[in-house]
User: What shape does this take?
Amino acid sequence: MGPPPPLPTRSAMASAKSSGDAAKIVALLESLHAKIDAMPKCECNTLRQELVDLKRSLDKTTDKQPLSLPAPTQDTYSVVKRALNDASTYAEKAKRAVWVGREELSTPDQTTSADQKAIESLCEELNDPHISDALKNGQIQHHRHPHEKGDRKRRILKIAFTDEKTRDKFLSLCRSSRPDTITKTPGNFVRRDLCPYELDLERKARIDAYTMNCKLGALVYGIRDEKLIKFNGSNPRPLPSDYANRPPRGFNNTSLNANPNATSTSTANGSGTKA
Assistant: This one.
């Protein structure tokens, strides 16, 4: 920024007045104002003015339509905590198998003792060294679920292993060898410990299997975990005598009007469970 133009001296003004040349003084003052107006403005003042103008603009917008912040959906901490808890729950489920259909005895102690003997017989029948060693070393535990029976007629038996690999080996042997310890009692089978959404799928698949088996008059369809499967073979086993009188939970008679070929299924070599 250059120095301001020099102001007229008193002697110059006196000389102009003495000569009576007022027009020249007016012209000089107008020229001075023009030069001052043409001088570059300070950038700080310019920025300050822009901020003032922006604030005025925002104030006008707020007066017309007040600013509103969206309500928070859920506390971040609780979301993260729930995710961690779910991950831990699913990790434990991955190391468990479930025995469905086992009868319970008169007292909890009698049931626990009978369950232990049944698991020992099952592991012996599977005849696998790894499974046998796990049982011998106390690495296979069990409990009824839920812990309190309440008004339930029969609770599932959960079998807990120390790792997922042993659990998978146990399930694979149960499905391939079809041990008598399980298959000798109708309605008994072993599956994974399913997550809540998988349990919903399992219930729906069980209803579909029951409906189609009733229509076909034979055990053509079954359940493997949460999936509907179709057994291999051209000569399916006949329905048990009381099969039609034992519909699965949630069954509706209108389901019998459905098309038995409408449900997508997988095929199994007799390793699933009937509905």
Remarks:
- The first helix runs from residue 10 to 18.
- Residues 259-263 have pLDDT under 50 and may be disordered.
